[in-house]
Fold each of these.
Amino acid sequence: MLTLPPFTYHAPATVSEAVALLAEHRGDVKLLAGGTDLLPNMKHRLFTPAHLVGLRSVRGLAEIAEKDGAVRLGPMVSIARLARDPLVEQRLPSLQAAAQAIAGPQLRQMGTLGGNLCLDTRCVFYNQTAFWRLALGYCLKKDGTVCHVVKAGKRCVAAASNDTAPALLTLGARIRVAGPLGTRDVALADFYFADGVRNLGLQEDEVLTGIEVPSPEAGQRSGFQKLRVREAVDYPSLSVAVSSALDAGGNARWVRVAVSALGARPHLVGSLESLTGSKLTSAAVAEIGRIAHRQCHPLTNINIDPAWRRDLIPVLVKRAFETCRLARAS
Amino acid sequence: MTLIGARIPKLDGPGKATGETRYLSDLEVPGMLHGVIRRSDRVHARIVSVDVSKALEVSGVHAVLTARDIVNVPFGHGKDNTPLKGDRVRCIRDEIAAVAAETESAAAEACRAIRVEYEDLPPVFTVEDALKPGAPEIHAGRAGNLPFTYDYAHGDVAQGEADSAHVVEGEFVLQFMTHCCMGTSAILAAFDSEGRLTLTSLTQVPFLYRRDMAAIVGMSPEDIRVIQPPIGGAFGSKLDIYPFEPIAVHLARATRRPVRIVFSRHEEFVSSPTRQPMRVRLRSGCDGKGRLTFRDAQLWLDNGGYTSWGATTPFVMMQTFSSLYRVPHARFHTKVAYTNNPYSGSFRGYGNLQATFAVESQLDLLAEKVGVDPLELRLMNSQETGEKTGQGLEFVSCGLRDCLESAAEMSGWRAKRASPALKGNVRRGVGMASMLHVGGGAKIYRSDGCGSVVSIDDFGKVTLVTGSTDIGQGSETVLAQMVAEVLGVAMDRVKVINSDTDVKPWDVGVHASRTSYVAGNSALLAANEAKAKLLTAAADLYELPKGELSLSGGFIMRGAEKVDALDKLVRTLHFTGKGELLVTHSYFEPASVKQDAGFFGNVSPTYAFGTHAVEVEVELDTGQVRVLAVSAAHDVGKVLNAMSLEGQIEGGVVMGLGYSLTEELKIREGKVLNPSFRDYHLLTAPEVPPIHFKAIETEDPSGPFGAKGVGEAPAICVAAAVANAVHHATGVRFTELPLTPERVLNGLIAAGVVRDPLA
């Protein structure tokens, strides 16, 4: 068995208590939501914090409700609940599809939406035991100075592997963060950075406290596709989320596509404005696939051929549009 | 017969299902210390120095051993391994030092505190590089990095070529695969005050283990007792002694305490054996009608840094090249080469998954050349009962033809083969492959036998003490059934003891699909003798003709009339008259022979045959292969336990599907890239298709109730059937495993079946 390093567990009852604990133990503390990402990483000695601040006892972080033109999701909503919640099913089809495609039943039960959004980036040279990493000579992301994916690379290319992120990006989500100086709102698109060491715009003493998704417009549809080795358990080799809003004539008011699991930052595909006002025909979808393909350059950060993962972008874009579901009135 | 062929749950089932079973990792004894091994973090290096001073300072540490502290006896099939490595490491798993401490975490901390200074040596990672002139020598004095070669031939391949209307030739590349036992490797070593050693060990070969271990740790074999606890899977991985086992003994000796070593899952992936990766170059020929003319095989096996029993897999593989279907001329040449990769071992099928993949892929290629259905080509070349092959294998029972026809029928072969289904982006196809494997052990030692003792106590409880070993395959249950059947008692009246070398009689071990056959025949001999004793005693006591008596329902019967209860008769024998015990014993030696230097001879008393037909779906835009159904027909001789047999078949098929589709231990420059269940992709429930099974009962004249071994069979011919089905679906032949979607899509693009999506 791989064992956990020793730590002290704190169970604050409020967000401000949690923030205070994070500030108090700054440099030696991690926030624990479902633990499905953090605890295995601790067993691999990727983190050895002396303190863990658990969010289970904090009230008000597990709500799902639609009000004031937005669907509000608490960060402690479990992935399993997200996958079956009727409001999510009606209003945010792609988010539901993404939640259903995460890991397996046991992990979905424990894992949380906030935890998934803050998932550590992943790499074949990083998600390994301490001894394995020692044998390799460590890497840029942890304890070392060399990147084994990109020789002479200076920036970590570990992959964002959270399935909910691309879905929420295409749904225009914003998140709320609480810290010692109060709360701030940030667009999810601005929350991620292209640096695998630290791809989150979250300070060590900050807590993600809410996710807000604009209520869907009339004619809005969304879809999600995930490529993985097996139909259960696996992290994505590639994930694609799409959303669009069609006017009464069937022309797109806007189209958003996100591609993830390739690099450190979930990629919101740019240059799709030309599709505004046109119909999403199969030719148009193929063109979107080509645009997305041009913008993505996967590397060997996981054990699966990057050229194949890239080639599959247009395929998954096509399938995501084909399986899109219309957001229904709540 | 009432019990033979019935659906009887495994005797160890309830304990395992409820969590009551205690595995070795659950076992703690008073005073026990935890052993942890410091392994090499280099793949090929000279050890300059090992400094253990900091490790000795860790609280709770009782001993830290390096090669300097023990008598380091060479061991293993090539005598090229040692428990601890003193001067040189040859692969990433190598053992440099070992710690025994009060807790596992103290031992691990001490291991981390050991300072090792290395001087890297030039590494070799491929067989091709290892065999190049001037390649770094991995073991001094083993010139050419070539510990073993195998050469076999029958007939005259040149004549076979001359007789051929069609010849196909190709190369097949097979990957590293690992066993993934749910229970990790473990051992508990304890000396008593008289210096006797008790090893609680997961070994598959307890008696050979005593002998080999005694030599390694400098003891007499009779002073070693091996206890075999319930085991969380073996699949061949426990055929060899591995360095951690003598290390535990050395730690126990140094600390005068019992020492237990249990591998972490990471250690299990990196430091337990693998299935041999290999390259197979094969030429096969047939005449204008499709009758096989010859096979000519050359193989290159990656041995890794040391030699285990895995290096002898060519011995099994050559049987497939020489004797699966009628082959008048065959030649086989194999090189087993050292590399600095993790070293390979024995694994269910023992080379036969690899050999069958090549042979059965080429049968489809030949069928295509001739223009006949692959089923017809196989039937045309199928063997029959009574045949003797070019290698001298004698098929006293052979159900291959029935297997072929049954698998075809279950899969809907003729209709599906006629028109591969096309549905948008998804193609469907069916493919088949057969297999031949030993079905009653393999005589690789002077004896391939097994001893048994049957006793009946004064309450009528029957005990079978068998030399054989149950590693989860269900032999305990099947042996109990056989004894219960003979003695006419219910299953719950039979207890099987099979786990202590101080108690049980000799046996070779559990391998070569031998236990049901060899231990079964042995148990039958003893049980039949016990039956004869009972009937004789009853005949004498009641003055009845012995020939009219039988055993049934716990009674001595004369026709439908109860003569006496079994327990009462046994008590009578104990307490009155001569005072006789009801104990019988037997030793069964199968009618097989050790092969000669040219590998000729009937190495097993009987052989298992099987055919799998597989239906697949291939997504043209992703390359994803989905297996829709597997239809498996196996010549099992006779069904002993229908439920247990289905379990063996299903488990083997799933193992074979993993080999076909997703499983690969990825090694990069000698290092394992995916040492976890997260990254090593065993199939999960959604990928497992319906498995249709038909048992072909050929009633082998020498088998217990007619049965033959089936333990390895169902894993063997899956991959070739999958590849043949993918070919049927897409027209593209894949010769490298696993059939990952990236490999398949690239193959489809290269063959022009699909266009590059962006071209």
Amino acid sequence: MSSEYDSQIPSSTVAYFFREAMRRIWVSKRTSFVAVAMIAISMLIVGFFLLLSENLSRAAEQAQGKSRVDIYLIADAMPAQITAVDRYLASHPDLARRRFVSRDEALRRFVSYFANLNGVVSQLDTNPFPPSFECDIAPQTMQTAPFLREVKELRGIAGVDDVQFDWEWVRRLKRVVNIVNIAGIVAGAVLALAAAFTIANVIRLTMMLYREEIDIMRLVGATERTIRGPFLVEGFLQGTLGALFAVALLFGSFEAARTWIAPANSLIWSFLFNGFLPWQKIGVLVAGGMLAGTLGSWLSVRESGEEAT
Amino acid sequence: MIHFYHVTKRFDAYSTALHDVTFHIEKGEFVFLTGPSGAGKSTLLKLILRQMNPTEGQIVVNGRNLNAMKRRHLPHFRREIGMVFQEFKLIERMTIFENLSFILTVIGLNAKEHKKKAYTALRAVGLQHKMNYYPLQLSGGEQQRVAIARALINDPLMLIADEPTGNLDPDLAQDVLEIFNSANLRGSTVLVATHDRDLIQRSNRRVVALDHGRILEEKIAAAEKPPPRSESVFVNWSS
């Protein structure tokens, strides 16, 4: 005879859980479909936010990887003032990788970048672009106190009009990523809960369908664990299926949009269609579906356990 | 093995199924529980299986006080009892073999043992050739025999049957009695609730008679024909 309180579930029992769960899903195809679809929609929306945040994060990282400081001089800066700024930059390792951009070169760049505005440029009496220095710096440098001090010092040097660097922009982008992440988490949590309750109701219906069988199981000595196991596995499988459908749908939509919607040379689109989710995040999405499904079935089997005698 | 001490089961103020019932069934005994419909037989069996709790009194089964038993101990307690239900309680979507195998699965027995045990149990009731049939493809009597096979499959310490011969003709009823006798000889304590006077008469076993929820003191009947293992309450159905 088995021990008084078995702590191990035999492998044959686990196999029975899965066999029964799959059979019940098959028997109640329509209600199972509703549960799976609900999980799939929830995970699809969560996945959309994850994908958006992933691509924006990548864009921020790329921008951060190409960090640059622009030191704009006054339009009529004297050669001595330009040399003083150059000496300052040369003496500070963070800013030493510098390039001087003359007024003429700045105008040439503008004309080449915005060819359609050539007419406007040709009407100008004078060159409106100031001379500047461009410094390539390490992304991590931007966040340090010494760097910010150097920027402050630069702004105080005679002939310097303004100092601009990408960090603010990157910071704003990261803030957007955070908002997208929070929105994704909130929407995901709400939708996953809704999906869990749908699954709970589906499992409750299944349990009503199998009420007689459950009674027989109790009377012949089945433990609550054995009775509840197939229902828990049923929710788990529905959640897993829903999440897998969501991932497949998300991937298909993403690839289709990248191929058919996003123009190849658009900067904005290239940010948004940088790449699909990494495996870890796909894993999180699938795990979320599994968890929502299992939570739903656990909610209904817990109630049934409370009713049992 | 089964001890009732002043057990009363009341469903509401106007409906009392058992009144102050005290009786004892010792290990290895074969006892018939009899009485008219509504006498309280099924309630008594449900109390033994702890499908319900008594309103008053104590029930001790195999050394366990059922009133004090925790719910988590219930499955292991019920595995010691082979129960034959009046309405069979077979699962219609499963074959006969699956009905038996299912019990072994839910009590956690290794799948390898299922086939052998199920076949042996079905052979004991003469239905091994119908193991792939579904319950609704069998007659009432055959379904009853499957229910008996299921009750016996795990060699229970106690075999409890509620009207096990209600759907059987006399010959089959005798066969069922033989199965119960055989289980009793193998060491199971047997308690059979039945209306079947012939069956009781043929078996020559101890009888506990209930009427209106009380155990009858059939002293006269007992004096006319005392059963061989007389102890408390007896009924002689030939009178």
